[in-house]
Specification:
This is Periplasmic solute-binding protein. This protein is of the alpha/beta class. Helix content is about 50%, strand content about 10%. The strands form two sheets. It has a four-stranded parallel β-sheet with strand order 2-1-3-4, sandwiched between helices. It has a four-stranded parallel β-sheet with strand order 6-5-7-8, sandwiched between helices. Helix 2 links the parallel strand 1 and strand 2.
Length: about 300
């Protein structure tokens, strides 16, 4: 039997209400990220995503905007799809201090919670804008991520806090290795092509003697002066630096020339990166490899 117009309206009204309720639940009552027990986390780089993954585990969906093992994160420009992911995230994790300005811009009006490593680090005098090389600050950030995830998904609060504590214990192991390097090599001079690992070198008791003008120019994406190039060559040829700390992702003709000088002078070269190397997804594994390589170069 056919339904009358009033009967059809009576049938469709509850259905329309149900659809509206489902749509609201999926998008969040205020148009922001949807409530969930498995928060969506978007990080600026794969380094910070690896920290978030260590905390969130199976109860978080973590991704990063910048994941290249070769390029320079400073030059990254997110797509409209990237920005949409940030807007929909329950939690946004970034370095801050203008290092990942692309994420600061993309997240400016996002409604998800935010963890900015440069803001949550307890000791802001340590290192520089490369907060992911300040192991103490990485621990602070992991704990901050745990608290934010716990606020988003309270049912998993103990899980997040437990994983953060386990991660911090692993970071403490890395810091102990730096203390061991300091015990053996306190005051040893090294030279960096770019001030990437400043906090780690300081914790290891090492002194970076790279010409300031050279380092500043590379960091600003400019060509160092001939005088600064000559100074850098001299300290390597004279073996004043025990090792060259080489940022493989801030490379230009001047840094490549310094690399060749170090090799000809038989100065140990230790590669450091700004993002995770190909095939590596674990923050601790990444830093363990770099710290062990540094110790090996200094012990040689």
């Amino acid at each position: 039997m056919m339904k009358t117009g009033s009967a059809r309206r009576a049938f469709l009204a509850p259905l329309a209400l149900l659809v509206a309720v489902v749509a609201t639940a999926c998008s969040g009552s205020d148009g922001g990220p949807a409530p969930t027990d498995k928060p969506v986390v978007v990080a600026s780089t794969d380094v910070w995503a690896s920290v978030a993954s260590a905390v969130g585990g199976e109860h978080a969906e973590v991704s990063a905007l910048y994941t290249s093992p070769d390029g320079d994160p400073h030059e990254f420009e997110p797509s409209s799809a990237d920005t949409a992911r940030v807007q929909d995230a329950n939690l946004i994790v970034m370095n801050g201090d203008h290092y990942d300005q692309f994420m600061e811009d993309a997240a400016a009006d996002a409604q998800g919670r935010k963890v900015v490593a440069a803001d949550v680090r307890a000791d802001k005098t340590r290192g520089n804008e490369h907060v992911f090389y300040d192991l103490a600050a990485v621990s602070d950030t992991a704990n901050a991520i745990a608290e934010q995830l716990a606020a988003i998904a309270p049912v998993n609060a103990d899980y997040y806090r437990g994983r953060a504590a386990a991660f911090v214990t692993q970071i403490d192991g890395l810091r102990a290795s730096l203390t061991d390097i300091k015990r053996k090599h306190n005051g040893t001079q090294v030279a960096s092509t770019e001030p990437l690992a400043a906090a780690i070198l300081t914790d290891a008791g090492l002194v970076d003697i790279a010409p300031e003008g050279f380092v500043d120019a590379v960091e600003q994406g400019q060509s160092p002066s001939a005088a600064d190039r000559a100074k850098f060559d001299d300290l390597l040829n004279q073996h004043r630096a025990k090792a060259l700390i080489y940022n493989t992702q801030a490379v230009d003709p001047s840094t490549e020339a310094i690399l060749q000088t170090a090799r000809k002078a038989k100065v140990a070269v230790v590669d450091f990166t700004e993002t995770l190397p190909a095939g590596v997804t674990d923050y601790v594994v990444w830093q363990r490899g770099q710290i062990d390589a540094l110790a090996k170069a200094l012990d040689a």
